[in-house]
Amino acid sequence: xxxxxxxxxVRGIVNAELTPLLVAKFALAVGAFFPExxxxxxxxxxxxxxxxxxxxxxxxxVLSGHKVYDAGVVPTPALQYAVKTQGFDGGVVITASHxxxxxxxxxxxxxxxxxxxxxxxxxxxxxxxxxRFRHASWRSLSERVEKYPHxxxxxxxxxLEKVDRGLIASRGFKVLVDPANGPGALTTPxxxxxxxxxxxxxxxxLSPLPARAPEPTPESLAEAAKTxxxxxxxxxxxxxxxxxxxxxxxEAGAVYWGDRSAAxxxxxxxxxxxxxxxxxxxxxxxxxxxxxxxxxxxxxxWLKVGSVDIAHTMRKMGxxxxxxxxxxxxxxxxxxxxxxxxxxxxxxxxLMALEKRRASELFGELPKYYTIKTKYPMPREKAxxxxxxxxxxxxxxxLGTIDGVKVISSDYWLLVRPSGTEPLLRxxxxxxxxxxxxxxxxxVDGIVREVAGP
Length: 454
Ligand code: MG
Known about the structure:
Helix 3 packs across helix 5. By secondary structure, the chain is of the alpha/beta class. The chain is built from 15 helices and 21 strands.
C-alpha cells in the first residue's frame, strides 16, 4: 500500500502535492478513523494555505459526524497539550513543521496528545485509498464549528506550572526568541514574560513567507545568533514553524544541536530535580549523550529516528526521564510525551538559574566533537543504495542498522539514512578532530558520487 504519512504527518507542496482534493479525502479518512461523535480540536500554523486547508479539514470532520473545535493559530505542542488535558478525543494540526515554506501538511493527534501511531496511520491510509469514508446522517450533523480560543493560554500555564518561576525570575534573564514567523511567536515570548524573563523577538510576525528557513539550524539561526550576542542576551532559542523544536544559542552566539542541550537537560532532571528513568532518543543523536549520562547511572535507549515512535515507546515503557531528537525536539513526560520547544526552554532557564552559570559554560563542559551534518537530494531508492555501500565500506566496525546505518568507532561515529519526509539522504558524523571528520565525509561523498552518477 502506498504511504501518505512521512516521519511525522502528511506533507506536500501546497497545491502541487497537497491539493484540495487530497486534503479533503485525507480529512474524510481521518474522520472515518475517529469513532463517530468524537470531540476533535483543529489548529494550524502560519504556512501558506493553512486557513483554507483547515476549513476543508473541519468541513470533512463535521460531515463525518464529529464535534469540531477551531483552535486557530497554535504551536503543535500547545494543541497536543490541550487535547490531552481538556478531554478531547483527538485533534489535527495543519503544519509542515520544519519543511521549506512551500510545504504544508497535516498531523493527526490521538487522545493522549501524541500523534497517532504507525498502525493507526495504516488504518487511515487504508480508508484513504479504499475511500471508506463515513457520511454521517444529516440529522446528526453539528450545526457549527465551535471557536476554541483557549489553547495557547492553557499551554503557557501548563509549562509555567512545571518549573520554578521564582528562581528563574530572580535572575533577570534576557532571552532572544526566533520563532521562524510561526505560532511560537504567540506563546514563547509570553511564557518568558510570565517567567520574569525579558524576551527579545526576531521573525516574530506570523507569515507564510518566513524571513528564515523554518528548520532551526546553525545556518538558519545565524542572524538570531548574531543578534543574541549583540544585544547581550543570556540565551537564544530558535523554533521551527510549529514550535515543537528548540535549538539553543549561548550568550556569545554559538548555536548548539539538540543532543547537546538534551544532555544538559537530562542531567538537570536527574541531578537537580531528582527525577529518575531512562533517556530515549533516535540513532541520529550523538554518542556524547551516553558519555554524559552513563556516569550518572542514566541509561540511553536508542531508537529509530522519528519523534512519534520515540513518544509512543516512552509512554508504553513508562520509565522515561525524558526523550529527545538531535534536531531540537525535547520531550518531558511529566508535561507531555511529545516534543515541546517552550517546555525545553523553561527547563533550560531553570538549569541556568540553579547553576548560576552562563550558557556557554554549561555547553562548554560537554565532551568535544567536530560535527558535520549534511544532506544530498536524491530519491529514496538511491539513498537506500548509498546506505548499503556505506555498510560495505565500514565492514568490521560496530554497525547499527535500526535506521539507515550508524557506524560507531572509538574516535568517531557516523549515520547515513534516507529522510522520512523528503527525497534526501541525511548524513551526520562526529569525530574527535576536524581532520578525521573531513576524511570520513570524503568517504561518504565518494560513495554518493558513485551511486548518483555524474
Ligand atoms: Mg516541528
